[in-house]
Amino acid sequence: MKSLLVRFFLFSLVIAACSIAVTAWLASQATTGTIRQQQGEALETDAQIFDEVLKYAATHDSWAGAQSEMDRIARQHGRRIALTDHNGKKLVDTGDASSPQLPITPKAIVDPLNVNGKIDPRAVGPFKLTDEEHDKLHAYATQLSSCNPHIKIVEAPNGRPRLSNDEPGRPSLWEDCEVGNRLYTLTATETAAYRELQTLFSECLATLPGDPQILSKRPPQVTFDWEITTVRDSSPEVGACIETARRTQLEPYVADQAQLFLTPLAGEEPRSIDLSTTGVTRITLVALGILALAGFASWITATQLVRPIRALTAATKRTAEGDRTARVDGGAGEIGELAKSFNAMSEKLAETERQRQVLVSDVAHELRTPLGNITGWLEATQDGLAEPDPHLIDMLLEESLLLQRLVDDLHDLAQADAGTLKLHREPIALDDVVDQVVNAQQNREILLRAETTPVHLTADPVRLRQALGNLVANAVRYTPPRGEVVVKLFQVKDSAVLEVADTGSGIAPDDLPHVFDRFWRADKSRSRTTGGSGLGLAITRHLVEAHGGTVSVTSELGEGSVFRIELPLSHQR
Question: Which SMART domains match (predicted)?
């Protein structure tokens, strides 16, 4: 990790130095007036966006179909617009999958029923005129304008035409015009809406402290324009009732309250500050270069550090919980090497666990048969079903010796695993060792012979006889009657070579890599007709490796096998 830390530290220094230099340069070049102008333009843009979003909320009963309109506003102003409910669930978002996460704090709260404590005038709800009413009133407005050219007509949010000065009672403007009063006559839509408003208002009055009959005798005085609907000559509580009634009436017709987030468009850099004309191009290029470099550095850091480290952390937790299948793809570099080391460790743990389970199972199986035989015959003798004759004693002794050999083999393997396997080296003639092993393994049904040349080395003769004896015993065991086993000894350069060749059944190619594994047998049925515990070849490998040598095997199925031991003549331990 040292080189990674150095590179990351130097890279951070370069980025920091460049950023500080550019920031200082930009600060010195920028003018206070330009910055304020830029900030004012940004605030004005935000205000325009807020007003357009608020208009949509005031004129629609939900945000369900707002995406297209928000996309239009976002394109017009060059901003990303996102709306969420009070729980943070997105309602509308003009960004895409590559857009960054929204900021924690919203830009504003969009609520047409509470804009600085007031109701947005565009929230007309049930006051919205029908097309027929709209056309009829606008026809009156056209006649009124023709009657008096000084009258200026504007349209209210619900579609009703009205005088621009909001004072329909000034007769000097239209007292001689026949259609003046008609223009301000309530339509059926407005009448029904005001009736509903009056009912809601009365219900609110009933909840106020005081005499409901007195309050009911003082109905609210409301104008024809719901934008400035007021209650005249009433207490603040009564005035609050009309606001409550209006919000209750309009609530089904406006979109729910939402949080507004305004950010730069996804994939774009923030708009650069409008600086003075001196060196604008050069400053802009340098600033963009630094921004690109910082973005690239962030991407590299996130990809090469955060993701692999998080993956390693998660995999480590899984491994600690007992999952031996956890693996990590760490990529290249030091973290990649760490990931490879972790994967190797995880694979080793998995293999060790598998070997432990197999070892326990195999030891239990190997001990069960001889112990079962011994126990059974002893119980039979105790019950008087068998006589303790010499034949029975010999059989029980053979089973005991089998157990002893298995225990000795397990002890040897345990010493090899712990690195405490002791060798008592002395100068020996290796051909004498071969002769001793061949003479001890003679079999009437199989031709067992030796082909040796004199070879001398320093080694442990007992352990070498054990190693070679395991190979010869294995060859005899798997060679059919009238077969042949040949033990060869010769010297190749600075190595003594022992080969045990047989004409047995051979080993399948898929089984060759497992020949020296503990408790492995080519015969998966675990039959004892061929004898052996499945530990001999594993012990041979450890004994040969303790002498600094190697053991290998070549075989052809149906043709026989050749086991080869190579021992260095000059090896010292």
Answer: HAMP (SM00304), HATPase_c (SM00387), HisKA (SM00388)
